[in-house]
């Protein structure tokens, strides 16, 4: 087997651009997904069942169907319905964000519910409102517990952004597939792509474990 | 100061408090004893509405706290509560635990709240632990911090829910000592406890609860030495 480094070198600028887009897609998915996820998680925790129901349905749909299907639906259905034409990058960001939001909502809810009831009671017995108790007592503690599962979700998000290749968003796997198609090669493009993803996910894990250690007070 | 009328509380079909009538005078120390499941903790938790009540009324200084029109958070500021499990905020230092409510609820300037907090820590003998996190304290120290935290809101009434039940025997004394001091200073207190020695020594009145009712109430000495009700006699014969 002759491994052709020269075609990797030839595609390096494209792969670099692809990497930047992968990072962009992932970051957008993380940020939008986190904000949406917090809102949806809160919505699902509302005591009124009627208000909680749509949030619950949202989570059920986005966790219960494949991201691949969601990407195709959004790319060929949802985005054209609003813009008149489709846009691969916008569709990818939308699909990744909406999907991540469903998982993050559940991480958020689990984090809050894992805090001992006594904490809320102590805060309320001191005269704090529900909002004050949430903000100063429950959320800071819940947030610390949410970091490991959130980190997990972010890593999944980076990897799943590769599905955007099928709707021609020019990220890492898009260029990998282009390279494979041009030279009829398997190992060069896909191993290179794998290596880039590994570098991204390992860096993220490193950052997250540092953060986790810094926030530890107990 | 506190007047409880026909208080009822159910959890589903389980009626925990059946018909409680109780009046607590200013500066009085009322000790509530009884077997587990008798409703004594629930009674305490109803007094600052940590449990919603099923029926009846609770008046604190003439105001009906069960009336939806009254601001519950405002009411709770007046009633301090100390829990069996301490419930200190683990992400905050001792002094931050104490300052949090005065600063956020009462808008006391941080400097004032800190000075007052240190004063309270001195009172419970833990001034040197101000910057420590709760996880580094012993159970007895945690409970003393919890008492200081409740006092920081300058409550008119203090409720103690089995404050020494989760403690190692050798540190029970230090917590009871702080509570005795508080009683001596004239704090109105309702204490649910299994510490019969404390009830006898510090209590102005002892209430024996069983099965969701107040079975008997009296001053400590007559109640302990000459209980009138059969159930009180049976309970005391087991615990004394």
Automatic annotation (TrEMBL), chain A:
<feature type="transmembrane region" description="Helical">
    <location>
        <begin position="187"/>
        <end position="208"/>
    </location>
</feature>
<feature type="domain" description="ABC transmembrane type-1">
    <location>
        <begin position="19"/>
        <end position="208"/>
    </location>
</feature>
<dbReference type="InterPro" id="IPR010065">
    <property type="entry name" value="AA_ABC_transptr_permease_3TM"/>
</dbReference>
<protein>
    <submittedName>
        <fullName>Amino acid ABC transporter permease</fullName>
    </submittedName>
</protein>
<keyword id="KW-0029">Amino-acid transport</keyword>
<dbReference type="GO" id="GO:0006865">
    <property type="term" value="P:amino acid transport"/>
</dbReference>
<feature type="transmembrane region" description="Helical">
    <location>
        <begin position="154"/>
        <end position="175"/>
    </location>
</feature>
<feature type="transmembrane region" description="Helical">
    <location>
        <begin position="55"/>
        <end position="76"/>
    </location>
</feature>
<keyword id="KW-1133">Transmembrane helix</keyword>
<keyword id="KW-0472">Membrane</keyword>
<dbReference type="Pfam" id="PF00528">
    <property type="entry name" value="BPD_transp_1"/>
</dbReference>
<dbReference type="GO" id="GO:0043190">
    <property type="term" value="C:ATP-binding cassette (ABC) transporter complex"/>
</dbReference>
<keyword id="KW-1003">Cell membrane</keyword>
<dbReference type="InterPro" id="IPR035906">
    <property type="entry name" value="MetI-like_sf"/>
</dbReference>
<keyword id="KW-0813">Transport</keyword>
<keyword id="KW-0812">Transmembrane</keyword>
<comment type="similarity">
    <text>Belongs to the binding-protein-dependent transport system permease family. HisMQ subfamily.</text>
</comment>
<dbReference type="InterPro" id="IPR000515">
    <property type="entry name" value="MetI-like"/>
</dbReference>
<feature type="transmembrane region" description="Helical">
    <location>
        <begin position="88"/>
        <end position="108"/>
    </location>
</feature>
<dbReference type="InterPro" id="IPR043429">
    <property type="entry name" value="ArtM/GltK/GlnP/TcyL/YhdX-like"/>
</dbReference>
<dbReference type="GO" id="GO:0022857">
    <property type="term" value="F:transmembrane transporter activity"/>
</dbReference>
<feature type="transmembrane region" description="Helical">
    <location>
        <begin position="20"/>
        <end position="43"/>
    </location>
</feature>
TrEMBL record, chain B:
<dbReference type="InterPro" id="IPR027417">
    <property type="entry name" value="P-loop_NTPase"/>
</dbReference>
<dbReference type="InterPro" id="IPR003439">
    <property type="entry name" value="ABC_transporter-like_ATP-bd"/>
</dbReference>
<keyword id="KW-0067">ATP-binding</keyword>
<dbReference type="InterPro" id="IPR030679">
    <property type="entry name" value="ABC_ATPase_HisP-typ"/>
</dbReference>
<dbReference type="InterPro" id="IPR017871">
    <property type="entry name" value="ABC_transporter-like_CS"/>
</dbReference>
<protein>
    <submittedName>
        <fullName>Peptide ABC transporter ATP-binding protein</fullName>
    </submittedName>
</protein>
<dbReference type="Pfam" id="PF00005">
    <property type="entry name" value="ABC_tran"/>
</dbReference>
<keyword id="KW-0029">Amino-acid transport</keyword>
<keyword id="KW-0472">Membrane</keyword>
<dbReference type="GO" id="GO:0016887">
    <property type="term" value="F:ATP hydrolysis activity"/>
</dbReference>
<keyword id="KW-1003">Cell membrane</keyword>
<keyword id="KW-0813">Transport</keyword>
<dbReference type="InterPro" id="IPR003593">
    <property type="entry name" value="AAA+_ATPase"/>
</dbReference>
<keyword id="KW-0547">Nucleotide-binding</keyword>
<feature type="domain" description="ABC transporter">
    <location>
        <begin position="2"/>
        <end position="236"/>
    </location>
</feature>
<dbReference type="GO" id="GO:0005524">
    <property type="term" value="F:ATP binding"/>
</dbReference>
<dbReference type="GO" id="GO:0015424">
    <property type="term" value="F:ABC-type amino acid transporter activity"/>
</dbReference>
<dbReference type="GO" id="GO:0005886">
    <property type="term" value="C:plasma membrane"/>
</dbReference>
<comment type="similarity">
    <text>Belongs to the ABC transporter superfamily.</text>
</comment>
<dbReference type="InterPro" id="IPR050086">
    <property type="entry name" value="MetN_ABC_transporter-like"/>
</dbReference>
